[in-house]
Design a protein that fits this description.
By secondary structure, the chain is mostly beta strands. It has one helix and seven strands, in the order E-E-E-E-E-E-E-H. It comes from Campylobacter jejuni.
Length: 116
């Protein structure tokens, strides 16, 4: 499980849809929420944690426009190679994050350590 700590930067809402903007290490992340009840304790400046699974972290080897809402620069620290899957570990401004992808896709991307 990946974890990024941050503070609520902005709250945007329209009817039952809320977008929470979270600032972490000078990067703004967006979280879409569909339940207003879960917002009762959320206030601008409050500390929060973003949790997401390894298979939910997509990455690209070149800077390109993506339809993915949250994107940021990170460097590959290490690659754990398996028969079917590769686990890629990233350094995001001092925090370690990881992604799990197929071996086939990892070989296609020609991943290497210290790559941004």
């Amino acid at each position: 499980m990946n974890l990024i700590k941050g503070q609520i930067y902005e709250l945007l809402n329209q009817e039952d849809i809320v977008i929470v903007k979270i600032l972490s290490k000078e990067v703004i992340f967006s979280v879409l929420m569909l339940e207003l009840k879960s917002l009762e304790n959320l206030k601008i400046g409050a500390s929060v944690e973003l949790l997401f699974k390894e298979h939910e972290l997509c990455f690209s080897t070149s800077k390109t426009l993506l339809s993915v809402e949250n994107s940021f620069l990170a460097k590959i620290k290490k690659i754990k190679k398996g028969e079917l899957l590769y686990q890629v570990f990233f350094d995001f401004k001092g925090d370690e994050l990881s992604s799990i992808i197929t071996k086939e896709k990892a070989l296609e991307l020609e991943l290497c350590e210290n790559q941004e």
